[in-house]
Amino acid sequence: MATAAETAVMRRAITLAARGLGATSPNPVVGCVILDASGEVAGEGFHQRAGGPHAEIHALREAGERARGGTAFVTLEPCNHTGRTGPCAQALTEAGVRRVVYAVSDPNPQATGGADTLRAAGVQVEQGLLADEAEAGNTAWLTSVRLGRPYVLWKYAATLDGRIAAADATSRWITSPEARADVHRLRAEADAVVVGSGTARADDPQLGVRGVEGVTQPLRVVVDTDATAVRPGARVLDGTAPTLVAVADGAEAGHLPAESVLRLPRAADGQGLDIGALLAALHGRGIRSVLLEGGPVLAGAFVAAGAVDTVVGYLAPVLLGAGPPALADAGISTISQALRLDVTETVRIGPDLRITAVPVPARKGN
């Protein structure tokens, strides 16, 4: 059983891992802390960017010879393959690390097996310390590996009575500056930001991250089925970040930059694009996490497709009484089909409330 000191060290590794959010895809976020033989911290590291050294390598470089006979605490099972970098299991063995404690097993079939390699080399290996916390910090990547599609976080901002705009379509601003700043944090942690044609027409959004230092700008994606919402000069086509405009096969898109056009099949009902095909195309481009920002029609399509992994709602203490709701038709016609959610966090953001929730499996008989 881990000691309180060891638990604190793993929690430090989880904190380090979070520094890589938004910059490591298609790789996971990973943190590592190495203690020397006497139990003192010798080195720390986290995976900073795809193609760069992994967390273990950064920590080993900082530890130097002090790693020999020491213990490495890693949030994810050390990798066992050679890609753009070498296998971390081998690097730990060669450095003379005596013991490795990792939180979560690597589900990637190309990289798994690091624990077995370490054991075969005589290294003591333990797994599971703070596994739930480490999994939560790496949920986007783990979801993408397990499901073969990007993790999707749907974010919306609404009044207390669930309206995202007034009856005359005005919506600036329902939520506070503090809540809007928090949304930029979500953007900074995502690989791609996705909006629909309604949002593109109404708001002409730029979709870049502002107010976050050292950020890797996410890919901007507009789902514009008939290629009528994004026009030349749209802010989403500026040079802030790369952009894709997803359009239906056969749609006339000659007015858009050719490199920005992503052609996809229409949904089976002919309304909008096939959400599974969209996510598959993004996954194929190395996108492992998506921030779905709207609007309600696109959000409904994602919910109907079973492709929303987390919901983050910013609720403002405001009442409108009329106006569009946060979620349009999601294929739910009766209460027994309702998508039930488990609230995992509630936080006050300025005058607003941020609620985070995840879908729970439907219970038989409900």
Which spans of ≥5 residues are poorly predicted at pLDDT below 50? none
How far apart lie the N and C ends?
40 Å
Give the SSE string.
HEEHEHEHEHHEHEHEEEHEHEEE
Q: Tell me about the biggest sheet? A: 9 strands, mixed
Mean pLDDT: 93
Strand order of the largest sheet: 10-9-8-7-11-6-12-14-13
Structural class: alpha/beta
Number of helices, counting only DSSP H or I runs of 4 residues or more? 10
Measured as a percent range, the helix fraction is: 25-40%
**How big is the Rg?**
23 Å
**What would you call the shape?**
elongated
**Total beta-strand segments:** 14
* Assembly of the depicted chains: single chain
Strand content: 15-25%
Verbal overview:
With 366 residues, the chain is an alpha/beta fold. It contains ten helices and 14 strands. The protein has helices spanning 4-18, 55-63, 88-94, 114-120, 131-137, 139-147, 177-189, 197-203, 275-284, 296-304, and strands at 31-35, 41-46, 71-76, 99-104, 124-127, 151-159, 192-196, 219-223, 243-248, 261-264, 289-294, 310-316, 341-349, 352-359. The protein has a nine-stranded mixed beta sheet, with helices on both faces. Strands 2-1-3-4-5 form a five-stranded mixed beta sheet, with helices on both faces. The relative contact order is 0.12.
